[in-house]
Amino acid sequence: MAANQWAQAVRAQLGIGRVLPLGGPADGSWITEQAAAGVLLRAAGTPAGVRPGALRLSVADPGRAPQPAVPAPPSALPPGPLRIEADFAAAGDRPLPAVADEVRAALLEASVRELGLVVGVVDLRVSGLLDGAFAEEAAGPPETPPEPAEGPSAAPVKEGRGGATQDGAAGIAAIVLGVDGVARLAPVLGPSRPVALTEGHALIQLASAPGHRALDVAAAVRRAVASAPPAVSTVAVLVTAVEQQN
Most buried residue, 45, 52, 179, 209, by most Cβ within 10 Å? Predict the structure, then answer.
């Protein structure tokens, strides 16, 4: 890989953050930290008078995390319960412990309802107090994290939907795009192929459509690919974006 291509790949990897387990060890699914954080930041901003800040996700106890049922994506974290660490600023007209409880509840609900994450710990930190106009501004939706930097061929792929009329990766891509809840193929890991085949294993990178839980989409994709030709022995799904209603 040329030096400039390598630099682009590193920037893209840093942009998506960690590769997090989606569901449990038997689910064979992962999600980028950037995609998950976008959903969780919107949820954290729903309590009145709260402005979300930094949000990070990690495996709460990696030493006790089980092995995944299928080969994991490159640099993926093991499928153990997650830790959410989030900062927020809040208006000073309410007890901060009560506000923190609301933020925690919003994060936990969104992690299950919209994503399918298994969360073990939520750590919150009050980063500041909001007064007057600043508190009113905090009631609006939080900013969406920027899209990940793209490598030389990492543009999201949208193809015609239909059956597997082609061989190999192209045939699997056609199957994936026919699954309800798949918005598009969206590769972010180098060399940025939406479907990577290695010794009977398929790694599929996709964006989930609005109104569909990310874990449910990943499970449907794994079933569809495993049950239709061209046959593969194992399937892993990496959700790289969670699209929202306009």
Answer: 52
